[in-house]
Amino acid sequence: MSLTSKMQVIPLENGRFLHYYPTDRFKTEILSVRFVLPVTEGCAAADSLFPALLAKGCRAYPSERELSRRLDELYGTDFAYSIDRAGDRLTVSFTVDYLSGKYVPKGLDLLSEVISLLGSIIGEPLADPVEGFSAELTRLEVAAQLDRFRSIKNHKSRYAGHRARELLRDKSRYDVPIYGTEKELSEITPTLLYERYLHMLGASEVHFYYVGRETPLRLSSLLSSLPFASRPCAASPLIPIRPRAARIRRVTETTDGTQSVLVLGYRNSISISEPDSELFPLFIEVLSESPISKLFMSVREKKGLCYSVHAVSSLASGIMLISAGIDREKKDEAERAIRAELRRCRQAMISESELACAKESLINAYYTLMDSPLEIDAFYARCDLTGMCISLEDRIAAVRMADASDIARLASRLSLDTVFFLAAGEGGASDAV
Length: 433
What we know:
Layout: E1 8-11, E2 17-22, E3 28-38, H1 44-54, H2 64-73, E4 78-86, E5 89-99, H3 110-123, E6 127-128, E7 132-133, H4 135-151, H5 156-168, H6 182-186, H7 190-203, E8 205-212, H8 216-223, E9 249-255, E10 260-268, H9 280-289, H10 294-302, E11 308-314, E12 319-326, H11 331-346, H12 352-369, H13 373-386, H14 392-401, H15 404-411, E13 414-424, E14 431-432
Parallel strand pairs: 2-8, 9-13
Antiparallel strand pairs: 1-2, 3-5, 3-8, 4-5, 6-7, 9-14, 10-12, 10-13, 11-12
């Protein structure tokens, strides 16, 4: 499969940018509008909620049902919104996935219709300039978000990861929870949500992402009808590297049931601006994700110390978590075994088969990204948000060239900061040292 197509960045009028990926491989095309702006402390909950209200309807289609009917009329066009963050840079995205013009009746300019609808949804919301968004819709969205927050406690592995991240946060604007807090939710009003919507329109860089057959000239002309102005975004995607605590912090909480969860929280000194960042996913494959990864083959299969074990990393947050579902009495042994596998990585004790399998797994994952226009759109948008503007072709080339010494170097940049243990059954203590 060829990866020769790359996202082109084309400046538009009013300081906006078109990120253009030409391809004729798919029956559908993707167009997204991404508003990139600095994070505002204390407003994360509101910034995560107002996009949901835009999706409930607009002046032209003043209900969710009417908006859905219009999307169906446009040959089953899908509309979605999302939020993402890197450092103190927030992105609010609105995306349409629609049938390519090649597959619709002649005479129908589907792209033009889709862009018009996108402009209506984002630019003409169901809101009053004084009273803000609908009080009832606001209440329902706040209640749904509270339910999502509280449901985390019912999922042990999610809750353990959530608590570990809380303990690792430094409470700066770089590390506020992306969906806010329950306290922020309790203070949300329809007018606050409307103010945050207006703030997005007035304080954002505006980026359009496109994956499909249309020419950039015509696409640029059609996008000129959208009134969204662009402002330079002064925020930074780079998170300051935080040194670990003077000693390892250990926190234990109790839960019901029979299975416990152990989470080891590491600080990562690799910045997303460093060349090593493009190889970090390969280290994760060797450690945790490939079919013969070290944690799976040793900690789970050979020693039988856990039901599941995996590592998750965010270079944009400067942390890595290793989470294992275990029996309570195996906590200490499981921790020692996990840390031993990380030591082996640091010492370049990686077999040829482990490295080859990890490479194959990661490269296949990269190629799979190219099988979906939505994945292409999301991949390049995330690269731009984090400042990691490295093509898939270059990433694959770097993976092919890597050896065990590269894995050792990456593993050595991690330092254990926090051990969180969610202990099942009675008799557990809650402590932090």
